[in-house]
């Protein structure tokens, strides 16, 4: 555990220093685009935070190569190099888009190429689904399923990047929860070592978000841009695939998980989905909305969840905190359900269910209260 804590602190420190450096360079050379109609901010702000975040990730992987505890995934360096190549491509195209606004088809093609590098060269694929021992029928199906899963998560994370500190905070919370889940999952499977690629990536992402958040907090000095948001999505999807796509549920203790076989079977899928549920909902609604209007799924508009929160009467900071709360409640409820099933807690997974019900009810009240207040004011 100490090595994971060190990874978080080291990555956060490097990212913070690099983010401040990139911010100063961006201001000096005016490396920021014009403000768009859908933007919430009104001051030209550099969007190059993804560069600092990428270098922070690279630094963390470089240090891990000389750390004995992490040699378990460096034993097959092909996966690591594939991940680094994929995020390098993602950040390169993302920076170009942040500066010059590339065509959406170019960006999407680059995303599929990056996902293909992870799936093909890194051999990180969804080979099985932890639902009744279901396996993916063919290698081609596995490759396609993996690539689309990565691209969807990349865009889901990128779509909610619209308020100061939103993506960095949501991904920070999500990866803390996912790290805890992956840690418990490895322990329950009886592995000889708790050090693995999925948990390491989650820690790196926690560190990157911690290091970048001070410059991204309202009022933001710098944005992570598409380069940072897409990289976060790619790494989050990769860590989930490294855990769920290749994890064999049969390795779990049947005496522990036999008490709720259905829940135990779905948990390896539900937890990773839960931590990115808000980005996925925003992405799904945006695709349906734009398709219904005959537009490209990637054509910009001002109808994202964070825009709707502002239209309801929430301030920018309040909206961000509400997103944080939703992410924490949904993710923690799933984590508590998993822990309850696997560790013989009183009430088993119902602790997580009760926590989720109460938390969701509270979030609903806070989310919709400003709308009621505004209507009441108009009526008076």
Please provide a brief summary of the model:
By secondary structure, this protein is mostly helical. It has 15 helices and 2 strands. Strands 1-2 form a two-stranded antiparallel sheet.
Shape: globular
Q: What is the beta-strand fraction?
A: under 5%
* Distance between the first and last residues' Cα: 57 Å
Order of helices and strands: HHHHHEEHHHHHHHHHH
Strand order in the sheet with the most strands = 1-2
Helicity level: over 70%
Supply Rg: 21 Å
How would a textbook summarize the main sheet? 2 strands, antiparallel
- Mean pLDDT, nearest integer? 83
How would you classify the helix and strand content by structural class?
Answer: mainly alpha
Description:
Helix content is 72%, strand content 1%. It has 380 residues and is mostly helical. Strand 1 and strand 2 form a beta hairpin. Helix 5 (104-121) packs across helix 6 (139-159), helix 6 packs across helix 12 and helix 11 (261-275) runs antiparallel to helix 14. The longest helix is centred in the last third of the chain and has 30 residues, at 350-379.
């Amino acid at each position: 555990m100490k090595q994971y804590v060190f990874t978080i602190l080291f990555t956060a420190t490097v990212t913070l220093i690099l983010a401040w450096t990139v911010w100063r360079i961006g201001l000096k050379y005016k490396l920021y685009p014009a403000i768009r109609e859908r933007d919430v901010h009104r001051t030209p702000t550099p969007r190059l935070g993804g560069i600092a975040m990428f270098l922070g990730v690279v630094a963390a992987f470089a240090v891990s190569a000389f750390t004995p505890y992490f040699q378990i995934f460096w034993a097959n360096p092909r996966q690591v190099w594939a991940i680094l190549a994929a995020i390098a491509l993602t950040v390169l195209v993302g920076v170009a888009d942040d500066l010059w606004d590339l065509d959406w088809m170019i960006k999407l093609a680059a995303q599929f190429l990056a996902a293909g590098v992870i799936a093909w060269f890194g051999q990180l694929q969804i080979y099985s689904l932890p639902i009744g021992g279901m396996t993916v029928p063919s290698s081609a199906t596995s490759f396609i399923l993996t690539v689309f899963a990565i691209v969807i998560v990349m865009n889901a994370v990128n779509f909610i990047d619209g308020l100061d500190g939103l993506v960095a905070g949501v991904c920070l919370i999500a990866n803390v929860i996912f790290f805890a889940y992956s840690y418990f999952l490895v322990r329950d499977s009886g592995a000889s070592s708790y050090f693995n690629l999925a948990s390491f990536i989650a820690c790196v992402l926690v560190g990157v978000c911690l290091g970048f958040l001070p410059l991204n907090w309202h009022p933001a000095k710098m944005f992570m841009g598409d380069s940072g948001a897409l990289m976060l999505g790619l790494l989050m999807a990769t860590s989930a695939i490294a855990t769920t796509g290749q994890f064999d549920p049969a390795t779990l203790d049947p005496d522990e998980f036999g008490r709720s076989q259905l829940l135990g079977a779905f948990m390896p899928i539900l937890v990773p989905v839960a931590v990115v549920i808000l980005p996925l909902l925003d992405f799904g609604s945006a695709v349906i909305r734009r398709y219904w209007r005959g537009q490209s799924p990637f054509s910009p508009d001002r109808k994202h969840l964070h825009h709707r929160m502002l239209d309801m009467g929430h301030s920018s900071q309040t909206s961000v905190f509400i997103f944080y709360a939703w992410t924490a409640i949904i993710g923690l409820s799933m984590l508590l359900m998993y822990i309850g099933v696997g560790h013989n807690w009183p009430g088993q997974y119902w602790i997580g269910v009760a926590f989720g019900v109460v938390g969701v009810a509270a979030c609903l009240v806070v989310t919709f209260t400003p709308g009621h207040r505004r209507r009441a004011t108009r009526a008076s």
